[in-house]
């Protein structure tokens, strides 16, 4: 994956002396996976590769601290001994950001999984960085609140990782980004200093808002060990509609009508193309929600306080868009089971398209009017090069587009039978040049990692890159934090 990348000679090689320090500091055999003094290949394997099996590292040591103080001691020692580290949460990203490249030490926050506090008056939740987001959301449900982020990987993704990558997800249309919802952060800097800004205040206008450096910082200036986050009241009424449309122009019209007619209760507007839904049907075997084939599908969710009122508004919306021939066909979920089933057609895409091999994934922000044009042009480009086909002689299977229509976030996916340089060269850097011309973003979610590091110039000016490097050098002068990535 990185033929021109060389291990940084500044970093030390792990020794048995280092291993003994970590074992004595963490004081628990379960906290250290040692592949230096013995063979631990099988135990290390899940930490050395991403879930897509696209990125692979060669770590020989995984550390699992259980407190902020332990993280501090570990990082202080690593910094003094020039040992490179990679913070790792649920390892569910798309750009290789949480996977080692060479032999960096993996610091897993999986044992830092405590919910520290929740105030049901203000709706502010304080958690360890290693708390899994689905567990947090289930806890909040008991208190009639919800976690303001929803992802397909919610069963494994950790809140510290959410924040470190500034994850967006399915609820951003309604609840906004983590830059707004995160109120405070506790983190450990490379030299072991504990950055304690775990504020629970909605308003705090005293000096630089330094916590923002960690939101989307991908573990390059410190490890997030604690988060305080504002959580909204859980809606009593959740309604979902799923419908088919004849063109992307009709999708845009439907979105505009949804904003007008559904207004404050609109919580999600998801776009799926025909090929994405065909993959879900093929892999799951589930009966399709609608009869016939449609070029595009959308899923709308509303969240409010009055089921009858919201259902009536959604029914009237669907009647209107079908009457105006904006929507070809549609269905409303009648109960909670159907709500989950309809969401399955959106959330099941990632797993379905990965069923046949690997996937080239591009998570991009594009002006809404041109959102699907990239999928069409990518499909034409790969077809013209003879790279896409139905039998095993073609490396690529299809070109798929889906995503969050409400915030202009497209997931461009190219499922392949195997990863090949030929397919990658056809897509990159062409796709980033396409984005640059339209003033979009080469990373809407998930960050830069190692996959997009060399393409950051398509997004950021020389001045911005200089300031980012100065920030990195200030907090991490030895460069031990998540090296070879980001900038």
Can you put this structure into words, describing what you see?
InterPro entries: FAD-bd_oxidored_4_C, FAD-bd_PCMH, FAD-bd_PCMH-like_sf, FAD-bd_PCMH_sub1, FAD-bd_PCMH_sub2, FAD-linked_Oxase-like_C, FAD-oxidored/transferase_4, Oxid_FAD_bind_N. Pfam families: FAD-oxidase_C, FAD_binding_4. This protein is an alpha+beta fold. It has four domains: 95 residues, Uridine Diphospho-n-acetylenolpyruvylglucosamine Reductase, domain 2 (2-Layer Sandwich), CATH 3.30.43; 119 residues, 2-Layer Sandwich (Uridine Diphospho-n-acetylenolpyruvylglucosamine Reductase, domain 3), CATH 3.30.465; 113 residues, Alpha-Beta Plaits, CATH 3.30.70; 91 residues, Alpha-Beta Plaits (2-Layer Sandwich), CATH 3.30.70. Strands 15-12-14-13-17-18-16 form a seven-stranded antiparallel beta sheet, with helices on both faces. The chain has a five-stranded antiparallel beta sheet with strand order 5-6-10-8-9. The chain has a four-stranded mixed beta sheet with strand order 1-2-4-3, sandwiched between helices. A hairpin with a 4-residue loop joins strand 5 and strand 6.
């Amino acid at each position: 994956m990185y033929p021109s990348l060389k291990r940084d000679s500044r970093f030390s090689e792990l020794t048995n002396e280092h291993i003994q320090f970590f074992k004595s500091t963490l004081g628990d055999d379960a906290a250290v996976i040692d592949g230096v003094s013995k063979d631990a290949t099988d135990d290390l394997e899940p930490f050395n590769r991403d879930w897509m099996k696209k990125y692979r590292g060669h770590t020989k040591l995984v550390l699992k601290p259980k407190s902020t103080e332990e993280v501090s001691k570990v990082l202080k020692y690593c910094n003094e001994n020039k040992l490179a580290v990679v913070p790792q949460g649920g390892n569910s990203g798309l750009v290789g950001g949480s996977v080692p490249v060479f032999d960096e030490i993996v610091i897993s926050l999986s044992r830092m999984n405590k919910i520290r506090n929740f105030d049901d008056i203000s709706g502010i939740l304080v958690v360890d960085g290693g708390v899994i987001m689905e567990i947090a959301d289930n806890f909040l449900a008991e208190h009639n609140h919800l976690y303001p982020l929803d992802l397909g990987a919610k069963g494994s993704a950790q809140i510290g990782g959410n924040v470190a990558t500034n994850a967006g997800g399915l609820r951003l249309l309604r609840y906004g980004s983590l830059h707004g919802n995160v109120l405070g952060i506790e983190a450990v800097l490379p030299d072991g200093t504990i950055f304690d800004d775990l504020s629970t205040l909605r308003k705090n206008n005293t000096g630089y808002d330094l916590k923002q450096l960690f939101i989307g910082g991908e573990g390059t200036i410190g490890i997030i060990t604690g988060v305080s986050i504002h959580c909204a009241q859980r809606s009593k009424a959740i309604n979902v509609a799923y419908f088919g449309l004849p063109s992307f122009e009709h999708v845009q019209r439907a979105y505009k009508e949804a904003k007008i007619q559904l207004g404050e209760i609109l919580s999600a507007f998801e776009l799926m193309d025909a090929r994405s839904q065909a993959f879900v049907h093929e892999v799951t075997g589930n009966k399709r929600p609608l009869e016939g084939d449609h070029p595009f599908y959308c899923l709308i969710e509303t969240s409010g306080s009055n089921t009858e009122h919201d259902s009536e508004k959604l029914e009237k919306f669907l009647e209107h868009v079908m009457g105006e021939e904006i929507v070809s066909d549609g269905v409303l979920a009648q109960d909670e089971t159907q709500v989950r089933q309809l969401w399955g057609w959106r959330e099941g895409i990632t797993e379905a398209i990965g069923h046949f091999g690997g996937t080239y994934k591009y998570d991009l922000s594009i002006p809404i009017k041109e959102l699907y044009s990239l999928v069409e042009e990518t499909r034409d480009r790969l077809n013209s090069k003879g790279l896409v086909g139905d039998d095993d002689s073609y490396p690529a299977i299809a070109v798929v587009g889906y995503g969050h229509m409400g915030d202009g976030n497209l997931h461009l996916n190219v499922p392949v039978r195997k990863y090949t340089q030929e397919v990658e060269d056809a897509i990159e850097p062409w796709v980033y040049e396409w984005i640059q011309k339209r003033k979009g973003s080469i990373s809407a979610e998930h960050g830069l990692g190692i996959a997009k590091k060399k393409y950051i110039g398509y997004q950021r000016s020389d001045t911005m890159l200089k300031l980012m490097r100065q920030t990195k050098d200030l907090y991490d002068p030895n460069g031990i934090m998540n090296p070879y990535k980001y900038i």
